[in-house]
Amino acid sequence: MKALIQRVSSASVSVAGECVGEIGAGLLVLLGVEREDTREIADRLLDRLLRYRVFADNEGRMNLSLADTGGGLLLVSQFTLVADTRKGLRPGFSGGASPQLGEALYDYMLEAAQRRHAPVAAGRFGADMQVSLVNDGPVTFLLEMS
């Protein structure tokens, strides 16, 4: 499982011109699910997302987490994160989860996030989405779990 996290001042996701999720300051998380991923991996990744220290403390150091700040979490599925781009001129997706597994783990992670944190917003799995964001910093990290 891969999560591209971006510290944002604000972010939103729209489907067919309708805003389906938005947050103020917090984290935009683009989530890619791989074939071998499980609920246990999703739980570990969510714990890391909520506790990953990417927000500045009073001295300007990245010592605070989303759990510390109470910022928003916007979760958006993005299967292209799991593409194999090591060679050639076209990405390969054989390592990606099936649509059924991807949606099940995305939904599981979203429900778990909503139980553990607020506010939480989300995109729509499998939809053609438009994501808007103001990247704060910019601060972007790729978290990988297996």
Describe this structure as you would to a colleague.
It is a single chain. Helices cover about 25% and strands about 40% of the residues. With about 150 residues, it is of the alpha/beta class. The protein has one domain: D-tyrosyl-tRNA(Tyr) deacylase (D-tyrosyl-trna(Tyr) Deacylase, Chain: A), CATH 3.50.80. Strands 1, 2, 3, 6, 7 and 8 form a 6-stranded mixed β-sheet that branches. The chain has a two-stranded antiparallel ribbon with strand order 4-5. A hairpin with a 2-residue loop joins β1 and β2. It is globular and about 45 Å long. InterPro entries: Daa-tRNA_deacyls_DTD (IPR003732), DTD-like_sf (IPR023509). Homodimer.
Name the descriptors:
single chain, 146 residues, alpha/beta, D-tyrosyl-trna(Tyr) Deacylase, Chain: A, 6-stranded mixed β-sheet, two-stranded antiparallel sheet, 8 strands, globular, RNA-binding, EC 3.1.1.96, cytoplasm, D-aminoacyl-tRNA deacylase
What layout of secondary structure does this protein have?
Elements: E1 2-15, E2 18-23, E3 26-32, H1 39-51, E4 55-56, E5 62-64, H2 66-69, E6 72-77, H3 99-116, E7 120-122, E8 129-144
Parallel strand pairs: 3-6, 6-7
Antiparallel strand pairs: 1-2, 1-3, 1-8, 4-5
Helix pairs in contact: 1-3
Motif (Gly-cisPro motif, important for rejection of L-amino acids): 137-138
Pfam families: Tyr_Deacylase
Protein name: D-aminoacyl-tRNA deacylase
